[in-house]
Amino acid sequence: MTLQLNCDMIDSVKGGNRMAISLKGARVEAGMSLEEVSKSLKIAPSTISNWENGVTDISAVNLYRLADLYKVTINDFLLPKNYS
User: Fold this and answer.
1) Most buried of the four, 6, 45, 69, 70, by CB within 10 Å?
2) Between the CA atoms of 34, 38, 43 and 49, what dihedral angle is there, to the nearest 10 degrees?
3) Is 54:78 a contact under the CB 8 Å cutoff?
4) Could you read off the pLDDT tens digit of each residue along the chain, which spans 84 residues?
5) How far apart are CA 22 and CA 33, in angstroms?
6) Is the alpha carbon torsion for 21, 12, 9, 31 positive or negative?
7) What's the start-to-end Cα distance of the chain, in Å?
């Protein structure tokens, strides 16, 4: 799956952090809420929100866990294809 990122996502993230934007985009495309991701990974919703908003960095382990949960690759997070 190629993540489709829109301008609203880009504008809402601190400093336009591509990784953060990709994390949020993948969750939205997967049709999951913060609470659903939180329960699946046993991580506080505020932590996930901080990753998605560029407030804190995500660890490699949690990046892989999210990729698995969202059914995307790590490259989808690191190299998003479109900013429409």
Assistant:
1) 70
2) 0
3) no
4) 444 444 444 444 445 577 888 899 899 999 999 999 999 999 999 999 999 998 999 999 999 999 999 999 988 888 766 543
5) 15
6) positive
7) 16
Q: Is 29 within 8 Å of 21 (Cβ atoms)?
A: no
What's the whole-model pTM score? Answer: 0.75
CA distances from 28 to 36, 81 (A): 12, 16
Half-sphere exposure in the Cβ direction for 29 (13 Å, CA)? 21
Q: Which residues have C-beta within 8 Å of that of residue 6, sequence separation ≥ 6?
A: 83, 84
Give the total residue count for the chain: 84
Using DSSP, state whether 27 is helix, strand or coil: helix
